[in-house]
Design a protein that fits this description.
By secondary structure, the protein is mainly alpha-helical. The protein has three domains: 10-100, Rossmann fold, CATH 3.40.50; 112-182, Helicase, Ruva Protein, domain 3 (Orthogonal Bundle); 190-282, DnaA protein, C-terminal DNA-binding domain (Chromosomal Replication Initiator Protein Dnaa, Chain: A, Orthogonal Bundle). The chain has 14 helices and three strands. The protein has helices at residues 15-29, 33-40, 57-72, 93-100, 112-125, 132-141, 146-163, 169-182, 190-201, 205-209, 215-232, 236-242, 248-264, 266-282; strands at 10-14, 44-48, 76-79. Helix 3 (57-72) links the parallel strand 2 and strand 3 (76-79). Helix 5 (112-125) packs across helix 7, helix 9 (190-201) packs antiparallel against helix 11 (215-232) and helix 12 (236-242) packs across helix 13. It is globular. The two termini are 31 Å apart.
Length: 285
């Protein structure tokens, strides 16, 4: 795209960075004109992990207007997400409909031949000669993530330089072992869950663990207790200790309260399912 038109203003940003830049603009300058100027002047706007803006009202408001301005001007907008628009919870309908108005493509896992081609192409770019058996060995063991494949080739390049020898199956085994070890899921902790809930409700983790009884804090506490119970499978007694040494009956009440509300209120259920998915997905990063 840049080769065809070097003057194109192409902006790449993640959903998280977009949110953080907006927060910084509001907090530090009380003026979002520079922020507007940056994103609304794009010829091509690429937003990765756009699902991150789900549940963030100010960010969705800002993105809604940015999207409309660029779309009306005939600019290109490319969004990526780990799920289709209909599955992004706590997302305003007006945002969802705009996400669904364009071409939606599901990028599935590459097949064996494609994985081998990716490995060979990356090796070519790094001026690395990888034997066929090594390329096929890597492709057979790293099946779900293109970044893993590219990372494996980069590590092979580094090993080749250190060992001063051609890439071998033993090198490939070492590289794959390192990559899979690096990407082991991080266990979900009670702290992770409480932090995520506190962000959603606009309270602090200390509030949730405290004896405070305001409705907002109380509701956040019940949701956090339910999610800890649902995700970690800890005993009720252990959960009570995590939440300020609350007794068994308090924990049972909180779990039942959330379960009953999920049955009666579909929006509430969607919100709980969304935050639960966010927490579980975060453990795999």
């Amino acid at each position: 795209m840049k080769k065809r038109d070097p003057d194109l203003n192409i902006i790449y940003v993640t959903g998280e960075t977009f949110t953080n830049e907006l927060i910084e603009a509001i907090q530090q300058k009380k003026d979002t004109s520079d922020f507007h100027g940056k994103y609304r002047s794009a010829d091509v706007l690429l937003v990765d992990d756009v699902q991150f803006i789900g549940g963030k009202e100010s960010t969705q408001e800002e993105f809604f207007h940015t999207f409309n301005i660029l779309h009306a001007a005939g600019k290109q907008i490319v969004l990526t997400s780990d799920r289709p628009p209909k599955d992004i919870r706590i997302l305003e309908d007006r945002i969802r409909t705009r996400f669904e108005s364009g071409l939606i493509t599901d990028i599935s896992m590459p097949d064996f031949e494609t994985r081998v081609a990716i490995i060979r192409r990356k090796a070519e770019l790094l001026d690395l000669n990888i034997p066929d058996d090594v390329a096929e060995f890597i492709a057979n063991r790293l099946k779900s993530n293109i970044r893993q494949l590219e990372g494996a080739v980069k590590r092979l390049k580094a090993l080749k330089s250190l060992a001063d020898s051609a890439p071998s199956l033993s090198m490939a085994q070492s590289v794959i072992r390192d990559i899979l070890t690096d990407e082991q899921p991080t266990p979900v902790t009670v702290e992770n869950i409480i932090q995520e809930v506190s962000n959603l409700y606009g309270v602090t983790p200390e509030d949730i663990r405290s004896k405070k009884r305001s409705q907002q804090i109380s509701n956040a506490r019940k949701v956090a207790i339910y999610l800890v119970h649902d995700i970690t499978q800890m005993t009720l007694a252990a959960i009570g200790e995590e939440f300020g040494n609350r007794d068994h009956s308090t924990i049972v009440y909180a779990v039942k309260y959330v379960v009953n509300n999920m049955k009666k209120d579909s929006d509430f259920r969607d919100a709980i399912e969304s935050i639960s998915k966010t927490i579980r997905d975060g453990s795999g990063k």
